[in-house]
Write a structure and sequence with these properties.
The complex is a heterodimer. Chain A has a 3-stranded antiparallel β-sheet. Chain A starts with 7 loop residues before the first helix and ends with a helix. The mean pLDDT of chain A is 89. The radius of gyration of chain A is 14 Å and the shape is elongated. By secondary structure, chain A is of the alpha+beta class. Chain A contains 4 helices and 3 strands. By secondary structure, chain B is mostly helical. Chain B has helices at residues 6-23, 31-52, 61-85, 91-112, 121-140, 144-162, 165-191; one strand at 88-90. The termini of chain B are far apart. The chains are: A alpha+beta, B mainly alpha. The interface between A and B is medium-sized, with 29 and 27 residues.
Chain lengths: 93, 192
């Protein structure tokens, strides 16, 4: 199984990014209801793994960090969900 | 980390399903654009019809030109503002804007670069068709009001075909004002 996506929070992040073009840090925090530090740590792992792309910019003169799911992350998510489904239908691995 | 058991796998799949279901939110259509362009399109059709019948002097066409420039400027500035404010842009939202600009762009080309082909009321009908495509596209994503508004615009084109020339202009204008601008107004009100 995909080590990075075994964490429920990281799986949630990828699912949040799946149908979006870009999502800001604050929007992810609101959607997943996790602390800033916790979210930041999980996002850093996904960025390091090449699953998520990070972009820092200014919106209305305020710094903003936003995230985008990469093709690699999208593929890994699809494989991981397929494996979860196979576990569910075939019992534990 | 160890692999997951069936209970954990179910838990994770439920999380994914919940997030994906929540993200399938209704397409945010940007009501203000519909109000502005619907009123512009309907108003211009009536204005040009009145000029054609001699009720208004030909110089009145500059009102339409000035309104057109104002609508473009409004769309650009409002678009930039909304883009800067948005914290999430969904893929379906991006697809919608592609459809919107493609449709409106082609209608614009028909009106400006092919005005001999689409002469008189045909140019207004092109705008109505473009508007109907945009509305029905939003309607396809589950927005019932857009479906109704799209049908209103399409019906106005059919009605315009069967009534006399002055009434045809009013029918097309009514379609854009009631269907297109009306839809935008309802979206704005419902969005609060």
């Amino acid at each position: 199984m995909d080590e990075l996506l075994l964490s429920k929070i990281r799986l949630g992040i990828v699912a949040e990014l799946l149908t979006a073009q870009w999502v800001t840090f604050s929007e992810l925090q609101r959607a997943l209801d996790v602390s800033q530090g916790n979210l930041g740590a999980h996002l850093a792992k996904l960025v390091d793994g090449g699953y998520v792309r990070e972009e820092k910019l200014f919106a209305n003169r305020r710094p903003q960090t936003r995230y985008l799911l990469t093709a690699h992350g999208r593929g890994a998510f699809a494989e991981h969900v397929a494996e979860l489904q196979s576990i569910l239908h075939g019992g534990t691995t | 980390m160890d692999d997951l058991n069936a209970i954990q796998a179910r838990d994770h799949l439920e999380l994914v399903e919940r997030i994906l279901a929540e993200s399938q939110q209704r397409l945010c259509a940007g009501g203000e654009y519909f109000v502005v362009w619907g009123l512009f399109s309907g108003g211009t059709t009536i204005l040009l019809s009145l000029i054609g019948r001699g009720t208004l002097p030909p110089a009145a066409v500059w009102v339409a030109v000035a309104s057109w420039i104002a609508c473009i400027l409004f769309s650009i500035f409002r678009g930039r503002r909304l883009h800067a404010k948005s914290e999430r842009q969904s893929l379906v939202q991006r697809e919608f804007f592609n459809v919107l600009w493609l449709t409106i762009g082609l209608a614009f080309v028909a009106n400006v670069a092919a005005y001999r082909v689409f002469a008189g009321l045909a140019s207004a009908a092109v705008w109505s068709f473009a508007g109907a495509i945009v509305l029905l596209y939003i309607g396809m994503h589950g927005n019932r009001r857009a479906q109704i508004a799209g049908v209103v615009v399409v019906v106005s084109i059919v009605v315009a075909n069967f009534v006399g020339t002055p009434s045809a202009a009013y029918a097309l204008a009514a379609g854009m004002i009631v269907g297109y601008a009306g839809f935008g107004l309802v979206e704005l009100v419902s969005r609060g």
